[in-house]
Amino acid sequence: MPNLDCIVTNCIYNDNKCCCKGDIEVKGKSAESTEETCCGSFVERKDGARNAVGGPSKHIAVACEACKCEFNEDCKCTAEHIGIAGKDACSCKETECSSFCCCG
Questions:
Q1: Of 24, 34, 47, 103, which residue has the fewest beta carbons closer than 10 angstroms?
Q2: Which residues, including other chains, have CB under 8 Å from residue 47's CB and lie 6 or more apart?
Q3: What is the pTM of this model?
Q4: Residue 81 domain-assigned (yes or no)
Q5: Would residue 66 count as lying in a domain?
């Protein structure tokens, strides 16, 4: 499982740059750049709501539909480290996988 750093502090699953969800999905099936990816698991934190799923973890399972990413192997991320960006995101489209690397 990749080591995850998530700066999307407006996500309900974010706790001190760690994810509490247990697994996430990177979307962007035809992505050729970082900007064309997003965290499909993002849920905007509203009115101070907190996650009720689990505890924060740096190591997390990452499903990935970005077919052109060199770290995508059978729809799973094989990168040692993955970053999710989108500090003030209000929707999943405002997030991105900063570790995406196009292989062609």
A1: 47
A2: none
A3: 0.90
A4: yes
A5: yes
* In a domain? residue 102: no
Pull the structure tokens for residue 25. Answer: 């999905």
Domain of 89 in residue numbering reads as 3-97
Q: Which two tokens stand for residue 21?
A: 């969800």
The amino acid sitting at 72 is N
- pLDDT at res. 104: 66
Strands in the chain per DSSP E: 3-6, 14-15, 18-19, 23-27, 38-39, 61-64, 72-73, 76-77, 81-85, 96-97
Token readout for 15 is 């706790």
Contact 31, 69 (CB under 8 A): yes
Residue 104 tokens, joined: 């062609």
The token pair that represents 86 in the structure block: 């989108």
Task: Using the predicted structure, report yes or no on whether residue 62 has a pLDDT greater than 90.
Answer: yes
Total domains in the chain come to: 1
